Structure formats: structure tokens, C-alpha cells
Please model this.
Amino acid sequence: MGENIFSVLGPIMVGPSSSHTAGVARLGKMARNILGKEPEGAEITFFGSFATTYKGHGSDRAVIGGLLGMDSSDGRIPNALEIASEMGFKYTFKAIEPVSGHPNSLEIKTWNKEETIEMLGSSRGGGNILIEKINGFDVLLDGQYPTLWILLFDRPGMVGKIASLLASKMINIANMRLERSQPRGLASMTIECDNAVGPEIIEEIRQKEFVSSCRYIPRVR
Model:
């Protein structure tokens, strides 16, 4: 996740700060993409510097805009709270100043009728973001690649089977990360890909006997 043209020049955005507005909008959009369907509400907790500046820098509007599907350059972001209210989208904000990780961190809990997801992420400057946890599992995702998030049972050869399946479908792996709480337990695998992954491939992965779930997370702009 090295420096790129995006981090040097900064994003095309609406708002006063790439960290507190553009990055936050991307974090909201990432939470929406992880949920996978239209969210119906959200609870957002701002940590560190976000806790004291989120209203003045428009971070509250940016994160709701992202959750509603807006990109960081969307001209509707300044009115995102009003748009959310008109849509019946319920939201709450909480601010906690102490933070053990990055000072520009937030946690998003969002849901629809089918499920709830929780995501911890941070805005790293220049509109760049880093997702650190999803539903309590450690991840490291910057939103710049189409990503597969797979929960699977820790068994010998499982990583190779997933990689071979993707290779057979001409899907090139950019980055792969595997985290597990204990040997032979449930493991979290994130695979960032160079190209989009079709629904038929996702369904094929889900059918593997060692896979508990497979979720596709589109990249964010």
C-alpha cells in the first residue's frame, strides 16, 4: 500500500479536508460495500481528532453520504444528513477522544433487515483509508482493489485451493492476507484482486466445503 498518485495529489472531493471529509466519505462507502445491500441505518463512533472536529469539518455529512452511496466528489454530500432523513435512514453519532490506534479513526455499525456489519477504519490523509477490522476480524484493506473477504475453516491446502480457483478464472491476486484466532479454527482471508470478480466465481467459492462465507467488496472511489 505504498504511495501513489492519489496520495500525492489528493482526491477530487467536496469538503474542507481530505482526511476529515474525502477519506470519511470513502470509509462510509466502504461500509456500504461490505454490507452489500442498501443500509437502513448506522451508528458511527468518531475517535481521536475526529471526536473533536467531525462536525466542523463535515465528517458527519461525509460518512452518511458514503453510506448512502455517494463518492467523495458528490455535490450532495453537504446535504447528506437532510437526504438521509428524507429517506428514513436512521443514524446516530458518538465521539470518544482517547484512541489506541490511528488518531483519525471511526467505527461504523450499519444494517439492513438481513444483517448487521461492524467496521473499524481510519483516514490516512489525501483521501486514503485503511480498514482494520470487519465484524471483529483483523483485516488490512485500503479500498483500492476489488476484494474477496472469505471466512473459512483452517485446514491444510485451503489457501492454495482458493488461489488455484481464481487463477483458473484469470483473476490475478494483488494482495492476500490470512488471519486466524487459533489453529483449526475459523480464519479470515482477504484477497485484493486486479480485476472484478463475477458472481458465478463468488458462488463457486461459497460452495467449497471449508468455506463458511464469501463476500465481495467492490473498490471505492
